[in-house]
Design brief:
Elements lengths: L1 E6 L6 H13 L9 E8 L8 E9 L2 E9 L2 H43 L1
Parallel strand pairs: 1-2
Antiparallel strand pairs: 2-3, 3-4
Amino acid sequence: MNINVQSIHFDADQKLIDFIQRRADKLTQFYDQLLDGICYLKLEKGESEANKIAEFKINIPGHQLFAKGQAKTFEEATDLAMESLRRQINKQKTKENKTILSNHKEVLVEIENKEDF
């Protein structure tokens, strides 16, 4: 999956961009229909140590998934956001499977009703 990384008010090094791309590529293990995505890296002003934010928008057919992670490092924030995306993907797959099963049952009922006549 191709992911576009945008760092806001700073320049991200290539190691960080490669890390994010590798993590995003692992999402294809859970769902092979990921289209593309964008990652926003931000530094939050304040006294908190956890001031690194990674936001992800991932496009899948018919939906857009969003996740945000905040931690001491961008790598940790990315991992938090990716875990959230993984859960969202699993939930989406469950919904799709239920829809397929219910449609399959409707077709079977229609076939049975036609055979009765």
